[in-house]
Amino acid sequence: MSLAAFSATTFGIAVFAGLLGSLLGLGGGIIIVPALTLYLGVDIRHAIGASVISVIATSSGAAIAFLRDRITNLRLGMFLNLATTLGALAGAFAMDLVEPRWLFLLFGLLLGYSALAMYRKRNVELPGEVPEHPLAARLRLSGSYYDKALAREVSYSVTGVYSGWVVMFVAGVLSGLLGIGSGLFKVLGMDVFMKLPMKVSTATSNFMIGVTAAASAGVYFSRGEIDPVTAAPVALGVLLGALAGTRVMGGMKNTTLRKLFIPILLYTAAQMAWKGWNG
Amino acid sequence: MARPDANRPAPGRSAEWWTGQSLRIGVILSAVLVAAGFLLFLFRPAATAGAGANVAAVAAGVLRLDPGAIINLGLLVLIGTSVFRVAAAALAFGVEGDYAYAVICTLVLLVLLVSFALGKGE
Fold first, then answer.
1. What is the DSSP string of B44-96?
2. SS3 of B97, please?
């Protein structure tokens, strides 16, 4: 494959990854890594390096618009980021203590169960009346945003602050240990435990994943695992896709986003379980 | 469509606005550098010798107009937006008088810096 064709293909894949990632609060690694390694024959280390860049590009690109439109809950994002960054740090230390195999199996099952929980509320547009957690009230975590699809202001309360924080810590440990699925867990934590509107969950997850990824990006960079020739079309494509995603996301229904999210959840669950099963 | 913002602080003064602006500047700068470096690379692929895996090496490469180093500088700026947004939020919350969140953001920043420092030691 010529250099121009390789770059154009990588760019195209990256646009798609950025679009999907910005809509669903994921980093796009789930698309970038298999596409680069299996389809384009990129070395796995460079593919993972490029996917870390993709996470940051999705996060930074999408956050500009989501912060402006106040879909991202900045207070909640920062409060939970404390959990994920601490978790990632703990994960880096736990690397030698646990067998990744059992983690893959455990979290594969957990994700599968979460997919079921999400499927049950596939037609629920907004969480409705949620009892506000006392800590959420004290920290002013609850908020509101203007929903373009519903054409009205949506106010929401935050519940499950402690369980949400624990899920975020675990998401951080996972991204430190296994390097995948941290965006998925963040969205799940906010949607299932803290009962936020889906849009707020994905946009806030989007904001958070970049911060968590920054620490590992520094490490990959100093190891020389971020190849500029692969990472450049990925960064530019993902930024473009993420900007496009923020344009369409406002007008989409929460139920549509959830229906896009469930298959990805199932796919990742199967992938993790498979990795765990085969060691 | 008019947006009902009456019961909110003016967007121009909020922590969200400041954090968003800091991201916008970083993302544009990064995209320009990465695109420039990549175009340079497409025209003369042989010019990239060692793109550099640390700030000093990248800086030296950029002075030589090495395409890979220019891309890497853009990627470093992009990675920087992730850290910088936390600092911007900490500052903006502090200015707003929201000290609890200024402290939370500063703690996140500290944990990030510790991770950076530990990552280097590997």
1. -GGG-S---SSHHHHHHHHHTT-HHHHHHHHHHHHHHHHHHHHHHHHHHHHHH
2. coil
Number of A:B CB contacts under 8 A? Answer: 160
Chain B residues in contact with A222 (beta carbon < 8 A): 53-54, 119-120
**What gap in Å lies between CA B22 and CA B36, rounded to an integer?**
22
Q: How many CB atoms are located within 10 Å of the residue A95 CB?
A: 10
Closest residue, chain A, to B54 (C-alpha): A222
pTM for this structure?
A: 0.91
SS3 category, A56: helix
Residue type, A143: G
The pLDDT tens digits of the residues spanning A58-100 come to 999 999 999 999 999 999 999 999 999 998 888 877 767 777 7
Which residues touch A148 (CB under 8 Å, ≥6 apart)?
Answer: A250, A251, B1
Report the residue from A146, A219, A232 with minimal CB separation from B34: A232
Best probe of the B interface among A10, A55, A74, A96, by most B CBs < 10 A, is: A74
The β-bridge relationship of strands A143-147 and A152-156 is antiparallel
Give phi and psi for A206, each to the nearest 5: -55, -45
CA distance A259 to A125: 11
Q: Compare CB distances from B20 to A64, A85, A92 and report the shortest one's residue.
A: A64
Inter-chain CB proximity B19 and A74 less than 8 Å:
yes
